[in-house]
Fold these 4 entries.
Entry 1:
Amino acid sequence: MHTIQTLDLNDTRTIIDAGIAEAERIGSPSNIAVVDAGGCLLAFARMDDAWRGSVDIAISKAWTARAFDVETKALAKLSQPGADFYGIHASNDGKVMIFAGGVPMKKGETVIGAVGVSGGTGKQDQGVAEAAAKAFAHG
């Protein structure tokens, strides 16, 4: 029998709370999405004053990080003209996000979900996503 390891709803509380805390610390109202091992949305939070246009972007960043098991920041570098994954953002009906802010979450070496953040600069989104992922890893 094969058992799938995945994030669950209880895990999302730690992840989202840590993301909100970091977003508040750096002054970047954010949208924070968490997906499970199958890429399905588990939880979402839109902070007050976070851009409404970034809701879908945060969800897609989380999905992308899980779908390809890579940080979206790294995928952005791999998808530039002339690189191996150029044009990947047009795949999957345009759901693939190549902006920083999507981070796979692991238990050991197994990816069990991902977090996606949108609402600030790439550096801000990445920092919030990393803080959220780190809190879960140490939780």
Entry 2:
Amino acid sequence: MTAFFEGIAPLAYAPDAGDDLAFRHYNPDEIVLGKRMEDHLRFAVAWWHSFAWEGGDPFGGRTFERPWFGSTMDLAKLKADVAFEMFAILGQPFFCFHDVDIRPEGADFAENTRNLEEIVDYIGEKMAAGGPKLLWGTANLFSHRRFMSGAATNPDPDVFAFGAATVKTCMDATHKLGGANYVLWGGREGYETLLNTDLGRESEQMGRFLSMVVEYKHKIGFDGTILIEPKPQEPTKHQYDYDVSTVYGTLKRFGLENEVKVNIEQGHAILAGHSFEHEIATAAALGIFGSIDMNRNDYQSGWDTDQFPNNVPEVALAYYEILRAGGYTTGGTNFDSKLRRQSLDPADLIAAHAGAMDVCARGLKAAAAMLEDGGLETRRAARYAGWDSVEAQEMLTSGTLESIAERVTREAINPAPVSGQQERLENWVNRFV
């Protein structure tokens, strides 16, 4: 045992507790729509923000002092020790990592691989001793200066090769640890200026990279899901995986729409000019919904601030779309969220996750109540009821412009607008949140 979380006991569901280190709404065994709450939400802790982030921002350096900060394997193992102690306190069923979060950076690819393999074995022992499972692993192909112009889309084939080799080792690590998914997180797959960019070439490179990932998944027998995380404007100005629709277009172009799904982050949805529920609903409609990163932005900053969720109505609308789509399969709710740089204490890290889990629990229950009530779905069905007629269906299956124009003329069709009733629907949602 380390001393970092000394004196902090595992959190319990205690709605009336006076202490802030307790769950007031998250009860993992509570049954919601016939399923345990834990099994609906499938919470995961992000290794990078919880244990690797140092508390810096663009105008100031590290504010956190953690005993595991450093670049040795001993410190990486200490970080893992502390991580699993926090997992025991929170009791969440999953965690997620990038390779650079769990292993020190080596002098070259070979040393990176040795470091990764050693720490994966160490983490595997902790998982076998009763720790949480791995929701997904991923490779960091954006922080090191070698990736300043991207990985898959880099103009230098050696960087492409280094990135592909790194993904292979991370897929191996994820497979070895029994991960439910593998995520491709293209933080710099885009461009800054067209003056030095060949869009067609970079697009083809990205498509081949994705195809190789899928090929390797099947070769090693990884039965998890490959996920792409849409990334608008962060940090590359013109990002190739801007939003769910953009990702789907890429997958469709390269014949991967049945092989790859999306991991959607709330903060990224906002940066793309969408709502979180829009991106989830779009992914579900296209058949590529996989998993989510649950966080929020500061709406005054215009940047992805990765704050823990605290807005129940927003979260409820997101979970409504997830439940409406049938819930998660291999995915889950990962807290891609970090403390504010002034929140220095170990207890702050526990309280942040506990509060976020409570917010999600409240949102899930509100979403389930809306779905059970059925009012929204009834009104949605009524709005489109006209499409159930024979004539309407014929327009979609065998209609032509000529035949439709003939019917409009023959039947003197002259439709009047029908209210969308948005305010009444918003009032209906407010009954539950």
Entry 3:
Amino acid sequence: MSEASIPHLGSLPSRLTRLYGGLALYGLGIGLQVRSGLGNGPWDTFHQGVAGHLGLSIGTVIIGVGALVMLLWIPMRQRPGLGTISNVICVGLFADAALFLLPVPGHWALSWLYLALALVSIAMATVLYIGAGMGPGPRDGLMTGLVRLGLSLRLGRFLIEVTVLAAGWLLGGTVGVGTLVFALAIGPLTQLFARRFPLT
């Protein structure tokens, strides 16, 4: 999903609403998927693994990793925007809030409902915050930075996500059927929302 494929809102208040609404929804999606227990996306497997070893909340690790990833932007000559800084701070805060508020599912059907809602939330959130046009998230910027260095978009994303998934799994992050469902479904779902709900 590229920024060019998602329509942007024009006015500043609308763009800010779209940005922060998207980041809140993204944090909710992370909370739902982690709480489902069925398996996380690659980055959140890593965040969860690091959090378990350091005794920190997942949201705190999301913020810390986001800040560290932004340091990698420097040699790639990537420039952050308001959306980048907001992504670093807000997604982790909203993820922790969601994990605090969401009950642990007591039945497999509820776990799958959490996973389905997580996918919808993250896909819609991507359309919202990228469409605000205020800068990519730190992890997205890392991917586009590798593209600028000569890697294809697909290869850059594959290398990053396989690396963080493997590291997260080794650290004890949850990998399962939800991880596979996330990998297969998040791209098509995001594209679907971009086409059906341009929000212009």
Entry 4:
Amino acid sequence: MSDFFSPGWHWFIVAVSVAGLVFCVWLLFAASKTTSMSTDGTTGHVWDDDLREMNNPLPRWWLGLFVITVVFSALYLFLYPGLGQAKGSLGWSSEGQYQDEVAKANAKTAPLYQRLAAMDEKALAADAEAMGIGQRLFINNCAQCHGSDAKGSKGFPNLSDKDWLWGGDLAAIKHSISEGREGQMPPMAAAVGNGEDQRNVAHYVLSLSGSAHDSLRAQLGKEKYAACAACHGSKGEGNTALGAPRLSDKIWLHGWGEQAILAMISGGKHNQMPAQKAKLSPEQIHVLAGYVWSLSNASAR
């Protein structure tokens, strides 16, 4: 209830909740005092000549349960949050309970993470317990984008191969997880030239990886590719310091072919991986990074 944008909503919830309880109590007592509309104990309604609707009082056990329900509701609203922004006399909150449970879990696992934090990537990859923890951390925090098998999809890097935008050693992976990454390729149409020049550059880029291309266009596009070489390298080798992809292999993060490359040249691309340091402890990030490293270094496991 803390996200109310106006104090008026707080009082509205309080009024509705209290009025509801008061109405229930009034209805109970009003109904208990209602007398029959007929002297023979019925409501006076008759169907099929002899079918009469009775007006017997409610059973006492039912009345008792009703009263207990109302009292319980009032007591609950006094002890716990429920009346608008009121926190309740116990001061309980779901966020507070969550934080307490996280603190208890962290205290319980602290000795284990302390042991794992002293290991390098090869030792982590060879430790079955570390890999089990790393896999669960990956499924809970990374699989939404990179897939449960870490093979990624269009726009989301494959973490199980040797192709790394920002570097694949343990330190680089830990930095990526902790601080996040932001890759920006600006639109290059103005630097490359007109539509034909852009097509020529696209075919030159295809030629760098040995992909099917028009050799004449590739030859014409080599000079214009100089505008791209500052980030991707003169031979398309990429640059992990900038997160610039390698163009000399056949791994295409945003799609393969002339049209996909033209779209990148004309429109550019902005990719962002969110930082995880607010969600994961340094020890968890260390183990997770070791697991990610192991995916592309299977021989170490």
